[in-house]
Amino acid sequence: MSSLCKPGPVALFQAHVPFSFLRDLMPRTLDGQITMEKTPSYFVTREAPARISAMSKDTKLIVVVRDPVTRAISDYTQTLSKRPDIPTFESLTFKNRSTGLIDTSWSAIQIGIYAKHLEHWLRHFPLSQMLFVSGERLISDPAGELGRVQDFLGLKRIITDKHFYFNKTKGFPCLKKAEGSSKPHCLGKTKGRTHPDIDPEVVRRLREFYRPFNRKFYQMTGHDFGWDG
Ligand SMILES: Nc1ncnc2c1ncn2[C@@H]1O[C@H](COP(=O)(O)OS(=O)(=O)O)[C@@H](OP(=O)(O)O)[C@H]1O
């Protein structure tokens, strides 16, 4: 059994409030239950590793990662859907387009430098307490990736292949039956947005930029995510 704690508008470990207050926001956990909290931005938040470790050194951490170039374009697509007047992806990517200097202060680019973020976590947690889930495999083999998650959490492998079907129109796997319902459940409208076409030369330059950071990340995690061909 597991309970999922939803922190609402405050991402717990980013908030500058006392731990006693944070703990009270989490649901009580009984024996046999696992309490989970999901906030994607923790991975790139400087204070998060120390704050989470101060609350519990035994916390298990799960990070979903995908090709940082596609991640940047997806991030941009999400912002564009809310603010259609932003500059083009190509112009935001560079500090200086003619020299090819990448703007690493742009969050869409910065977040994908996974090796740098991981360094901060490894000062507070052993690698054995971290699981890196492949965003690509979550689509191509959801049961396989969720098998790894269940093993990591010490759960029986209850979710398997038979729980999923692939929805070609959506381009994503869907659950054959949602929890507590007999109906299928697919990801919402905001997942699988069409990404804009990006100048292939800009994509090439970004691939070149991320390659050394990806290699370092594969080395640190002991897992080749296959983003560099
Ligand atoms: N379960 C699962 N499997 C594989 N990929 C998934 C999943 N859930 C979300 N996504 C993709 O992650 C991208 C960002 O998703 P979100 O909208 O959830 O991001 S956020 O949490 O709101 O920041 C977005 O990517 P793109 O659609 O490529 O832009 C989502 O489609």
What does the main sheet amount to? 2 strands, parallel
Mean pLDDT: 91
In spatial order, strands of the major sheet run: 1-2
Number of strands: 8
The distinct bound ligands, ions and cofactors come out as: 3'-phosphate-adenosine-5'-phosphate sulfate
Reading off the top of the CATH hierarchy, the class is best stated as Alpha Beta
Strand residues, percent: 5-15%
The CATH topology comes to: Rossmann fold
The total of helices stands at: 9
General form: globular
Q: CATH superfamily, please?
A: P-loop containing nucleotide triphosphate hydrolases
Low-confidence residue ranges: none
The percent of residues in helical segments reads 25-40%
Task: Give the end-to-end Cα distance, rounded to a whole number of Å.
Answer: 39 Å
SSE topology sketch:
Blueprint: E1 2-5, H1 19-25, E2 34-37, H2 48-55, E3 61-65, H3 68-82, H4 89-93, E4 94-96, E5 101-102, H5 107-110, H6 114-122, E6 130-134, H7 135-140, H8 142-152, E7 164-167, E8 172-175, H9 200-221
Parallel strand pairs: 1-2, 3-6
Antiparallel strand pairs: 4-5, 7-8
Helix pairs in contact: 6-9
Would you write up a description of this structure?
The chain is α/β, with parallel strands linked by helices. The chain has one domain: P-loop containing nucleotide triphosphate hydrolases (Rossmann fold). Helix content is 38%, strand content 14%. It is built from 9 helices and 8 strands. The chain has helices spanning 19-25, 48-55, 68-82, 89-93, 107-110, 114-122, 135-140, 142-152, 200-221, and strands at residues 2-5, 34-37, 61-65, 94-96, 101-102, 130-134, 164-167, 172-175. The strands form 4 sheets. A two-stranded parallel ribbon has the order 1-2. A hairpin with a 4-residue loop joins strand 7 (164-167) and strand 8 (172-175). Helix 6 (114-122) packs parallel to helix 9 (200-221). It is globular. The N and C termini lie far apart (39 Å). The relative contact order is 0.14. The mean pLDDT is 91. It binds 3'-phosphate-adenosine-5'-phosphate sulfate (PPS). 3'-phosphate-adenosine-5'-phosphate sulfate binds at residues 40, 74, 77, 135, 138-139, 187, 190-193.
